[in-house]
Amino acid sequence: MTFDAPSRTESPPEDAVKPHGESNQPIDPKASENQTHTVESVPTDQATPPAAPADEVIGVRTGMFGVSGTGDTSGYGRLVRTVALPGGTPPPYGGYFDDLVADLHAALGVRFRDAIEKIVVFRGELTLHVHREHLLAVAKTLRDNAALRFELCLGVSGAHYPEDKDRELHAVYHLNSITHNRRLRVEVAAPDSDPHIPSLYAVYPTTDWHERETYDFFGILFDGHPSLTRIAMPDDWRGHPQRKDYPLGGIPVEYKGARIPPPDERRAYS
Question: pLDDT tens digits for the chain (270 residues)?
């Protein structure tokens, strides 16, 4: 048994295309002749949607896991994926983001252009990319200005982008304004050859252990930290395990030879 499928040129039943809110009563031809149909013009700025921010392409990754120099036994060796970071977002940003940026601009004045590298709105979050030499000034302004009042730093995390030339290491701070119930991300980049970023311990003491952990796993040196030491890996561990260029395994085992001193000989953390 076969069924003839309707062609794409056939029109569906009238009830299916009936505009929402109209009845099934027949239309008076004389009434339709007296009706005048007008088409409202759409403003040019509304007809064309704003262009999406261009992503920053920093590299191309091939294969399933980005591993090269070995025989492909996975079957995914011909996969090609672009490695990109979100590009700068043009205003307006939406929500309270516009007021936040305007208040920061007013507080920093002429320093705003030199301090802020770019502003990104991505997945519902506002991120200020700050040049590392201006990080302390921006953090103090975000904390102390009455219109901003980001009193709490929720944590510091690291990221490693080997393809992002001269900006391979990133530190990300999550700030919270208890006064205004707002969230903000602050991101700072540093090159592998000079992995120094100012410590925010003096501004936000809660970054104490977070900066130590980021140093331990990513190798970022937070200048001005009172005691920048490893907190997870042994003191004599070579390398930083969360970096993308860190070996995934094999021998020699770097933990071999590490010495854990007795409690009365261990270093103080304060």
Answer: 444 444 444 444 444 444 444 444 444 544 444 444 443 443 434 334 444 567 888 888 777 666 666 666 666 777 888 888 888 999 999 999 999 999 999 999 999 999 999 999 999 999 999 999 999 999 999 999 999 999 999 999 999 999 888 999 999 999 999 999 999 999 999 999 999 999 999 999 999 999 999 999 999 999 999 999 999 988 888 889 899 888 765 444 455 566 666 666 767 666
Residue 258 makes CB contacts below 8 A (sequence gap 6+) with 234, 236, 237
- DSSP-assigned letters across all residues of 44-67: HHHHSPPPPPPPEEEEEEESSS--
DSSP string, 224-236: T-TT---SSS-TT
Beta carbons of 152 and 178 less than 8 angstroms apart: yes
Strand boundaries in 44-179, DSSP class E: 56-62, 80-85, 116-122, 125-130, 152-160, 169-177
Question: Measuring CA to CA, which residue among 171, 172, 100, 180 is closest to residue 141?
Answer: 100
Alpha carbons within 13 angstroms on the beta-carbon side of residue 92 total 5
Structure token digits, residue 153 = 């730093």
Angle between helices 97-108 and 135-144 (to 10 degrees): 110
* Pair type for strands 169-177 and 116-122: unpaired
Q: What is the CATH number of domain 87-223?
A: 3.30.460.80
Cβ–Cβ < 8 Å for 197, 132: yes
Burial group, residue 38, by CB count within 10 angstroms (0-12, 13-18, 19+)? exposed
